[in-house]
Specification:
242 residues, alpha/beta, Rossmann fold, nine-stranded mixed sheet, 24% helix, DNA_methylase_N6_adenine_CS, SAM-dependent_MTases_sf, site-specific DNA-methyltransferase (adenine-specific) activity, DNA_methylase_N4/N6, S-adenosyl-L-methionine
Length: 242
């Protein structure tokens, strides 16, 4: 069995003509990143709610630092889009509003959401926040609503653990990345918030959906992912080896 937790991997970069995936810490990478580098940032950071019992989703996220760095590395006229949990939304709105005059909420609605919360409404959507300036690009070729209704990521698109890897035996691990967003949702964001040839940044790349969408739609990408197994999965997707 392969145990990727034991591999000395941080600092590895996988490169293609469409862009790079860095196996690194998002905060360290941003701290060393040149200013005004990207036309758009589209990302899905940890929600701080312990999704699927994962430790990586329990740590306090320095949203203030991320908002500052996003503004610093974004080119003038660029766009920022972040997915976030309900209780993070206020912090993201507060911090991004320090640097961007225009903000608009977004909802990804999931009609096939499952589960049961006794005495409460069942969660069936995830929030996002779009931040931009007065002169930021926004695609005018179609009408965009601030919500999308799609099913959850499933079927071939839903990446599963490698059966040859030790982690795949972990009880309850039903997917490689539990918060993987549907490609359709990310493609909509890429089309609305960037032009062909633009470079889009995702510092919390997960299994690389942003890179897949960018490549398909004629954009460049730069992504950072701390988890080595996700880095490998993202790279395989980019190369068309799902």
């Amino acid at each position: 069995m392969i145990d990727l937790r034991k591999q000395d991997h941080l600092g590895v970069t996988s490169s293609s003509e469409n862009g790079d995936i860095h196996n690194n810490d998002a905060f360290l990478f941003l701290g060393n990143c040149p200013a005004h580098r990207y036309e758009a940032i589209i990302t899905d950071p940890p929600y701080e709610i312990g999704i699927a019992g994962k430790d990586w989703d329990c740590k306090k996220l320095r949203i203030d630092v991320l908002a500052y760095q996003f503004h610093r590395v974004l080119k003038p006229g660029g766009n920022v889009f972040v997915f976030c949990s309900d209780f993070q939304f206020g912090d993201w709105y507060c911090e991004l509003s320090r640097y961007f005059p225009k903000l608009r909420k977004f909802a990804w609605c999931k009609p096939d959401s499952v589960g049961f919360n006794k005495g409460m409404f069942q969660e069936s959507f995830e929030l996002g926040l779009h931040a931009c300036s007065e002169d930021s690009f926004f695609d005018d070729q179609k009408y965009y609503k601030n919500h999308m209704v799609t099913g959850k990521t499933s079927g071939k698109e839903r990446l599963m653990p490698d059966p040859d890897e030790e982690w795949s035996e972990k009880k309850g691990e039903k997917a490689l990345h539990p918060t993987q967003k549907p490609l359709k949702v990310v493609e909509e964001l890429v089309t609305a918030l960037s032009k062909k040839g633009d470079t889009i940044f995702d510092p919390f790349a997960g299994t690389g959906t942003l890179g897949v969408a960018a490549k398909k739609l004629g954009r460049k990408f730069e992504m950072v992912e701390y988890g080595f197994r996700n880095h490998i999965a993202a790279w395989d997707r980019i190369r068309g080896e799902e």
